[in-house]
């Protein structure tokens, strides 16, 4: 009769506490800061609050009339406080019982916060804001805070994982189909995003009417156009890590972490969130366009004249699917060996 090892046996308490405590403290700071800000909004303050997603006013730098909002939406106020309280309970339980029954909860919290941050929005808006385009700094600050919180909770979950060093023999080559999808995920933003946007920045009306090109040059500076064109495909290069050794083992040139394994979920969760975000954005945008055509708000002639813009929406769908399949291949390849052996036995049986 075998006895199942308790989590405390797999993770000595002293070692677990030393690994978990810094992450737990950082998570507590994040939760306290969020509760403080939300309580300030509930009390009537509006510094840092934005209403650009729920008003018709056009003033991104001023929060779109945030000071005029009298009733705070539930999820911006008490709803967010409730979620923060649940996260606080999770952190306190982690400190009291290090690495016991909390890893899944920490990963769920990380995914939730990253989804709420909507990284795709940050990917486009931050370069544009740095290039001088008027931006809603309140919204960007909130999203950056949520993204930071997601990374902190991911670090908290990873701190509970057994610490080991990956040997060369531990590297697992991903299947050929995974590499092909990874290359597709890299090529799509280059061909379907960087090329047309680069041409538009250079003044070439590729797949759009001349009046739309004039609007682009009137509203975007040179630096903003360059950032919007180059940042997405450069960020897309990270997907190669899911098909290369540096996606499983931290390179030797990284000080302090050289040779250590890349936490499996730390690669899978962000990639999965981005893949879902890309595909969802593309599908929803296409649905909105179809509805506008059916209601007569947009004519087929306009769609044909601006076919490159419509094709960009398809690029988002394809980019998300390619990244999602690549992530699935990485997740399958890097499963614990015991799980792989069990699945192999079941398939033979």
Radius of gyration: 23 Å
What share of the residues does DSSP label as strand, in percent?
under 5%
Order of helices and strands: HHHHHHHHHHHHH
In angstroms, what separates the terminal alpha carbons?
A: 24 Å
Transmembrane segments: 20-41, 75-95, 102-124, 144-161, 181-208, 220-243, 264-287, 307-332
Keywords: Membrane, Transmembrane, Transmembrane helix
Task: Give a structural overview.
The N terminus and C terminus are likely disordered. The longest helix is centred in the C-terminal third of the chain and has 32 residues. The chain is globular. The chain folds into 2 domains: 155 residues, no CATH class; 184 residues, no CATH class. It is mainly alpha-helical and 349 residues long. 66% of the residues lie in helices and 0% in strands. The protein contains 13 helices and no strands. Helix 4 packs parallel to helix 10.
Short synopsis of the structure:
By secondary structure, the protein is mainly α.
Task: Indicate the topology.
Layout: H1 7-10, H2 13-42, H3 78-96, H4 103-117, H5 119-130, H6 137-159, H7 176-201, H8 210-219, H9 222-236, H10 264-295, H11 300-305, H12 307-333, H13 337-348
Helix pairs in contact: 2-3, 2-6, 4-6, 4-10, 5-6, 5-9, 7-9, 7-12, 10-12
Keywords for this structure?
mainly alpha, 13 helices, globular, disordered N terminus, transmembrane, membrane
